[in-house]
Amino acid sequence: MKQDDLVLAGPRGRITVPGAALAATGLRAAERISCARPHRPRRGVGVELEEGRALVRVELAARLGEPLPGLGRSVQAAVAEALALMFALETRVDVTIEEVEH
Questions:
Q1: What CA–CA distances, in Å, run from 36 to 43, 51, 80, 93, 99?
Q2: Distances in Å between the alpha carbon of 101 and those of 36, 39, 93?
Q3: How confident is the model at residue 2 (pLDDT cuts 50, 70, 90)?
Q4: How far is Cα 31 from Cα 102, in angstroms, rounded to an integer?
Q5: E strand or H helix at 31, and its extent?
Q6: pTM for the full model?
Q7: pLDDT in tens, 22-80
Q8: Contact 63, 56 (CB under 8 A)
Q9: Who contacts 57 (Cβ-Cβ below 8 Å, separation ≥6)?
Q10: How many CA atoms lie within 13 A of 72 on its CB side?
Q11: SS3 for 86?
Protein backbone atom coordinates (compact mmCIF):
# COMPACT_ATOMS: atom_id res chain seq x y z
CA MET A 1 0.00 0.00 0.00
CA LYS A 2 1.09 3.53 -0.62
CA GLN A 3 2.79 5.36 2.26
CA ASP A 4 3.05 9.15 2.08
CA ASP A 5 5.40 11.13 4.32
CA LEU A 6 3.94 13.77 6.65
CA VAL A 7 5.80 17.10 6.57
CA LEU A 8 5.12 19.53 9.40
CA ALA A 9 6.52 23.02 8.78
CA GLY A 10 6.96 25.61 11.50
CA PRO A 11 8.91 28.76 12.26
CA ARG A 12 11.94 26.75 13.43
CA GLY A 13 12.08 24.36 10.51
CA ARG A 14 10.50 21.21 9.24
CA ILE A 15 9.68 17.79 10.68
CA THR A 16 9.23 14.84 8.36
CA VAL A 17 7.40 11.76 9.60
CA PRO A 18 7.86 8.82 7.22
CA GLY A 19 4.72 7.16 5.94
CA ALA A 20 5.96 3.92 7.46
CA ALA A 21 5.80 5.52 10.94
CA LEU A 22 2.23 6.67 10.29
CA ALA A 23 1.29 3.17 9.14
CA ALA A 24 3.00 1.59 12.16
CA THR A 25 1.01 3.85 14.49
CA GLY A 26 -2.22 2.82 12.74
CA LEU A 27 -1.20 -0.83 12.85
CA ARG A 28 -0.54 -0.74 16.59
CA ALA A 29 -3.89 0.95 17.21
CA ALA A 30 -5.71 -1.70 15.15
CA GLU A 31 -3.88 -4.51 16.97
CA ARG A 32 -5.16 -3.23 20.33
CA ILE A 33 -8.74 -4.09 19.35
CA SER A 34 -9.60 -7.58 20.56
CA CYS A 35 -10.87 -10.02 17.93
CA ALA A 36 -9.08 -8.11 15.15
CA ARG A 37 -5.73 -8.91 13.58
CA PRO A 38 -4.18 -7.02 10.69
CA HIS A 39 -4.44 -9.45 7.78
CA ARG A 40 -0.91 -8.90 6.53
CA PRO A 41 0.98 -7.18 9.34
CA ARG A 42 3.67 -5.63 7.16
CA ARG A 43 1.25 -4.49 4.46
CA GLY A 44 -2.10 -4.50 6.27
CA VAL A 45 -2.21 -0.74 6.84
CA GLY A 46 -1.73 1.94 4.19
CA VAL A 47 -1.68 5.72 4.63
CA GLU A 48 -2.21 8.40 2.02
CA LEU A 49 -2.01 12.12 2.82
CA GLU A 50 -3.72 15.04 1.15
CA GLU A 51 -3.85 18.60 2.47
CA GLY A 52 -3.19 17.66 6.10
CA ARG A 53 -5.70 14.81 6.13
CA ALA A 54 -4.98 11.12 6.15
CA LEU A 55 -6.77 8.24 4.46
CA VAL A 56 -5.89 5.01 6.21
CA ARG A 57 -6.76 1.62 4.77
CA VAL A 58 -6.74 -1.31 7.17
CA GLU A 59 -7.08 -4.95 6.10
CA LEU A 60 -8.15 -7.25 8.94
CA ALA A 61 -8.74 -10.83 9.87
CA ALA A 62 -11.58 -11.17 12.39
CA ARG A 63 -12.47 -13.86 14.88
CA LEU A 64 -15.44 -16.04 13.93
CA GLY A 65 -18.60 -14.96 15.76
CA GLU A 66 -17.51 -11.35 16.26
CA PRO A 67 -20.09 -8.81 14.98
CA LEU A 68 -18.17 -7.35 12.05
CA PRO A 69 -19.76 -3.87 11.81
CA GLY A 70 -18.94 -3.18 15.46
CA LEU A 71 -15.42 -4.51 15.04
CA GLY A 72 -14.86 -2.29 12.01
CA ARG A 73 -16.13 0.79 13.85
CA SER A 74 -13.88 0.03 16.84
CA VAL A 75 -10.83 -0.22 14.57
CA GLN A 76 -11.79 2.98 12.77
CA ALA A 77 -12.09 4.88 16.04
CA ALA A 78 -8.83 3.51 17.48
CA VAL A 79 -6.77 4.28 14.37
CA ALA A 80 -8.24 7.77 13.92
CA GLU A 81 -7.67 8.60 17.60
CA ALA A 82 -4.06 7.39 17.52
CA LEU A 83 -3.16 9.46 14.46
CA ALA A 84 -4.94 12.53 15.81
CA LEU A 85 -3.15 12.24 19.14
CA MET A 86 0.34 11.50 17.78
CA PHE A 87 0.36 13.64 14.63
CA ALA A 88 -2.64 16.03 14.83
CA LEU A 89 -4.08 14.45 11.69
CA GLU A 90 -7.71 14.45 10.68
CA THR A 91 -8.17 10.86 9.53
CA ARG A 92 -10.62 8.79 7.54
CA VAL A 93 -10.22 5.04 8.11
CA ASP A 94 -11.44 2.45 5.60
CA VAL A 95 -11.57 -1.07 7.06
CA THR A 96 -11.71 -4.21 4.93
CA ILE A 97 -12.28 -7.56 6.62
CA GLU A 98 -10.33 -9.96 4.44
CA GLU A 99 -10.68 -13.14 6.48
CA VAL A 100 -12.67 -14.71 9.31
CA GLU A 101 -10.69 -17.04 11.58
CA HIS A 102 -11.71 -19.74 14.07
A1: 15, 30, 16, 15, 10
A2: 10, 11, 22
A3: low
A4: 17
A5: helix 19-31
A6: 0.87
A7: 999 999 999 999 888 887 666 678 899 988 799 999 999 999 998 999 999 999 999 99
A8: no
A9: 1, 45, 46, 47, 48, 93, 94, 96
A10: 15
A11: helix
